[in-house]
């Protein structure tokens, strides 16, 4: 009896130790996810930080380097082209070298060229430096979308990534703060000091681990290449992957009939192209349009957008929570459907109070709730075997939308009024964007990535 009692106590003790070990591992995993979210948030904040440092100093730079408005337009096209190509390139790097490697690479190159802005002496050196800095800062988003969404738990994926996405607003405030602190030393000093936060995030990012889904995919590719069927079967049992398509690893796979993602790639590309095109009016040229058409001062528009940006942190997270409850596709539809009537109201209204509310809501529909779910949705609809390529492609499509929208804006403003231009781009293309969202694939919230697509 004593022996049996001893065995029972030993078994109970072993069970308690096992439970404690399990609880400890779960706690460590939870702490790591929190750490990853914070690092990702500040990484995306620094991408916005770089862009907004340039936006804040552009008047000083153009005056110092004698750059005309038309030359700025040329530089903008080079920057967009760089962002497009680098987004595609980093999709390939993520797929072949790993998510963590790509993440560090983007941050380091963006940081170096942000600092090199200090040394520019002429127009073409400025174009080169800013194209590379902006290109890799923009690619940060694609890598972050892929890595974070592959790590976080399925049931909270949308809400957790919406927190990361809110980092864009943090970056706006960081850039404003840095500008106010050191702009008295000249615009060059703003970029030199701007490297410091990038270094801190790079150090923190060194502790981030590689995505387990990428490691699984890498091991599966190696097993397939060596003909190790036993390992392939074991890995397939862990996570289901379409091994026939895995071996391809090229962008054309996104549009290959046999790959199973052609419809997804086409519908997503159309939606994000239209989103980028309408965004040119509803965000990029909004301050200019309001100044020229409604007679507002630039400072007044900037103040409203600053308030909208601050509130946007909340709207990003609200969008993420709504996506968890009602599905991310439905939140995208709801956000896009709001854009045309709000844009039309801004065009027709002469009341300042109505304009204030309409612009605030338009900003949230095109940024907060849309982005709060949109980038998690991108990661979900593409299977792991092409997720990096797919998300990189989508980042390029957004930039492509900016390029097309800017071209349409330039062509229209040359022959018709600003009011008509707004009607075509903000209202018309905004309506096309809304219509396109109804064709996006349905994804139930809370599903594991492998359950959505293999």
Structure description:
Keywords: Membrane, Transmembrane, Transmembrane helix. With 454 residues, the protein is mostly helical. The protein folds into 3 domains: 2-210, Up-down Bundle (Growth Hormone, Chain: A), CATH 1.20.1250.20; 213-240; 248-452, Up-down Bundle (Growth Hormone, Chain: A), CATH 1.20.1250.20. The chain has 19 helices and no strands. It has helices at residues 2-65, 69-97, 99-116, 123-151, 157-165, 167-182, 187-193, 195-205, 212-226, 229-238, 243-246, 262-284, 286-293, 298-326, 328-348, 352-381, 384-415, 418-437, 449-452. Helix 16 (352-381) runs antiparallel to helix 17 (384-415). The longest helix is centred in the N-terminal third of the chain and has 64 residues, at 2-65. The mean pLDDT is 83.
Overview features:
454 residues; mainly alpha; Growth Hormone, Chain: A; 83% helix; globular
Would you list the SSEs in sequence order as H and E?
A: HHHHHHHHHHHHHHHHHHH
Q: Architecture of the largest domain, CATH level 2?
A: Up-down Bundle
Main sheet characteristics? none
Low-confidence stretches: none
Molecular shape? globular
Percent of residues in helices comes to over 70%
Q: How many beta strands in the DSSP annotation?
A: 0
């Amino acid at each position: 009896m004593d022996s049996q009692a001893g065995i029972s106590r030993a078994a109970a003790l072993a069970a308690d130790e096992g439970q404690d070990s399990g609880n400890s591992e779960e706690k460590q995993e939870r702490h790591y996810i929190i750490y990853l979210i914070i690092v990702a948030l500040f990484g995306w904040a620094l991408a916005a930080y770089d862009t907004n440092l340039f936006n804040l100093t552009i008047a000083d730079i153009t005056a110092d380097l004698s750059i005309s408005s038309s030359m700025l337009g040329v530089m903008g096209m080079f920057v967009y082209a760089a962002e497009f190509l680098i987004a595609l390139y980093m999709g390939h790097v993520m797929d072949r070298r790993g998510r963590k490697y790509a993440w560090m690479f983007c941050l380091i190159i963006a940081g170096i060229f942000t600092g090199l802005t200090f040394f520019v002496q002429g127009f073409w050196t400025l174009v080169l430096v800013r194209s590379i800095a902006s290109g890799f800062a923009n690619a940060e988003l694609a890598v972050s979308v892929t890595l974070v969404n592959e790590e976080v738990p399925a049931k909270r994926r949308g809400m957790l990534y919406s927190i990361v996405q809110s980092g864009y607003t943090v970056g706006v405030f960081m850039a404003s703060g840095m500008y106010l602190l050191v702009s008295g030393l000249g615009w060059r000093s703003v970029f030199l000091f701007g490297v410091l936060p990038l270094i801190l995030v790079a150090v923190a990012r060194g502790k981030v681990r590689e995505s387990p889904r990428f490691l699984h995919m890498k091991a599966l590719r190696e097993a397939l290449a060596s003909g190790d069927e036993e390992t392939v079967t074991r890995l397939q049992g862990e996570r289901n992957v379409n091994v026939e398509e895995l071996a391809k690893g090229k962008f054309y796979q996104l549009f290959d009939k046999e790959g199973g993602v052609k419809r997804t790639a086409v519908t997503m590309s159309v939606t994000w192209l239209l989103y980028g095109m309408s965004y040119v009016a509803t965000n990029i040229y909004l301050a200019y349009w309001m100044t020229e058409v409604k007679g507002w001062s630039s400072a007044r528009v900037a103040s409203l957008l600053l308030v909208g940006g601050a509130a946007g942190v909340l709207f990003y997270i609200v969008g993420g929570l709504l996506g968890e409850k009602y599905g991310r596709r439905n939140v995208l539809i709801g956000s896009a459907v709001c854009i045309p009537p709000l844009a039309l109201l801004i065009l027709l209204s002469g009341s300042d109070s109505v304009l204030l509310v309409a612009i605030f809501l338009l900003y949230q529909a095109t940024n907060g709730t849309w982005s709060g779910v949109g980038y998690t949705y991108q990661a979900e609809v593409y299977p792991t075997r092409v997720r990096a390529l797919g998300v990189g492609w989508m980042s390029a499509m957004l930039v492509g939308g900016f390029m097309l929208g800017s071209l349409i804006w330039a062509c229209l403003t040359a022959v018709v009024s600003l009011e008509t231009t707004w009607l075509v781009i903000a209202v018309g293309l905004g309506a096309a964007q809304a219509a396109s969202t109804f064709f996006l694939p349905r994804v139930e919230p809370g599903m594991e990535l492998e359950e959505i697509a293999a």
